[in-house]
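Q: My labmate handed me this sequence with no annotations at all. I'd like to see what the chain might look like in three dimensions before we decide whether it's worth expressing. Could you predict it?
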Amino acid sequence: MATISRDFFPAGWDVTMMDASVSSEQEQIDLVSDADAMIVFGAKPKEAVLRAAKNVRLYQLGSAGYDGVDMQLTGELGLPVATASGTNAEGVAEQFIALTLALYRHLTWVDVSVREGGWIPERARGMETFEIMGKTVGIVGAGYIGSTVMRLLSGFNCNILYHDVLAKPELEEKYGAKFVSLDELLSESDIVTVHVPLLESTHHFISTRELALMKESAILINTSRGPTVDQAALVETLKARNIWGAGIDVFETEPAEANNPLFELDNIVVSGHVAGPTRESFPRRAEFAFANIKRVLEGEEAINIVTAT
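A: Here is what I predict for the chain of 309 residues:
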């Protein structure tokens, strides 16, 4: 993102870029102490750095999630935090489709079998291979990403349920989606996909009870944040075959350790928190970040401001 960001530097602005992974804490303090705004992507500034940002009028993230930000501290400092929500929606929504198809079509297992000369593994001969068409898909969280998932699904001729803190009639009209409770969504869906931020209210909000509501033939896809789903409960559910499978891009601890019990299962497809970053999303992130800062510096209200919950 750093190289691409240069294309969006506003004329006349003094923009300094720093790789927080190699710079010292003092170098970061020196940089932010005289800054009007800061853009943070893939880094977690320490308390001393944030306290030095006395003139910063916007802490702009390059990501949609903000669980890595010390919101209590930024609130105490009166430092507004904004996300880049929406800029990664296409990539995450497409990753949902990719993980679903990888499970339904046994792609990772077929790949290994063909490379090793085994051709078609027994599991992929058809009776345990499925199509998205005609399935009921439950979308948990109907924000930028959830609504993009709805758009992509409109080409698959499937039924769409969704759950969010509020009903969204415009999405219901546009995509034929139906607003339901979380319990109804879990019990009625063939495919459940999670697209919520990590908050206190969403930490392990899908656990043993919620997984037990799902059909034995259902699959769970998580491309949001690892701790939204109780990993221990998911492992036990998959082991017992109480749901058919899962596609997981995010983990409770990242990077995921090699001995993660999920990796021992044969009904799960995994990726390593790669849903959001795409070549196409980086320009969107940079363009949005600078435009949002420009709003603030011109006396307007920033978009995507978040607060502690």
